[in-house]
Amino acid sequence: MKLKNKVWSMAMMLLLPTIPVSSQQVLQGSLTMWDKGEAKIAFYDMITGDMTELGQVDEAGKLEIVLSENYPAEVRAMAEEAQKNAPEGWKIRKNTVTSAFSCGSDELTVSNGEAEVMGLPELGLANSYGDPVYGVLMPASNRQVADWLYSYGEKDPNPGYYVRWYYVEETASVKGKCVVDYYTGHEEEFFTEEIVMDLDLTEGWNIIKTEISRVFTDQSGKIHPATFVHTRITELPADLQWFAMESAY
Fold first, then answer.
1. SS (H, E, C) the chain
2. Which one, 69, 117, 135, 229, has the greatest CB density within 10 A?
3. CA dihedral in degrees (246, 12, 210, 229; nearest 10)?
């Protein structure tokens, strides 16, 4: 379920970035500019539309997201249910380290590439009825990066970074760089895109930071991300912000 249009941002001060609690991890923080009252943090099945709640925001704007170590079993159960309701011939494919972190180059060195990977889906802010009317959470270093992500590249990014979460079932690694030339559509103008993979993945939850370290401005003034650097980090950066892309309905 994709929410569009009206955008407003919420800078998030991380109080306790990642807290191991027995069989789960808890992300805690405090949202600024929050005036929506209590909200649920959830994701939605792409086939059934069923909601899975992962956390909540209280009236004061305090945020908590729970990442369960049972996530693989929960995802497989949802996948089985979704397959029952899927169109004929449609089949859910499992994601692996090789498929999840591929950048189109044979130059990558991949260890244990068949290890299964399950990414955390887009998280929505829902009301008490489970409707995601308060927006979609987008963790990034600045508003321009969040806008670029949410618009699928239509808006211009600034240098900065965003983070995502992946559950990996076995230790694995991806190392190397992909280099591709992209034409901008303005005569013979092109720029070189570099994607650097420096991933040492551990069993369980992994925080993946993707930094846009270089951008290219074409003849029309359009800004393109030109260098991406993917790394695994153990704690959320102190300057991370959470942005909410608010629904127009």
1. CCCCCCCEEECEEEEEEEEEECCEEEEEEEECCCCCCCEEEEEECCCCCCEEEEEEECCCCEEEEEEECCHHHHHHHHHHHHHHHCCCCCCCCCEEHHHHCCCCCCCCEEECCCCEEEECCCCEEECCCCCCCCEEEEEECCHHHHHHHHCCCCCCCCCEEEEEEEEECCCEEEEEEEEEEEECCCCCCEEEEEEEEEEEECCEEEEEEEEEEEEEECCCCCEEEEEEEEEEECCCCCCCEEEEECCCC
2. 135
3. 140
Q: Which of 240, 239, 244, 173 is nearest to 206 (CA)?
A: 173
pLDDT digits (tens, 9 = 90+) for 122-145: 899 999 989 888 888 889 999 999
Q: What's the whole-model pTM score?
A: 0.84
Dig out the tokens for 213 from the structure: 């370290």
Of 157, 175, 174, nearest to 214 by C-alpha is 157
The structure tokens 């998280």 sit at 123
76 contact partners, CB below 8 Å, separation of at least 6: none
pLDDT at position 24:
59
Q: Provide CB contacts within 8 A for 60, sequence distance 6+.
A: 30, 34
Lookup: tokens for 8 = 């407003």
Instruction: Take residue 83 and report the two structure tokens written for it.
Output: 């397959």
Regions in the chain scoring below 50 on pLDDT:
1-23, 247-249
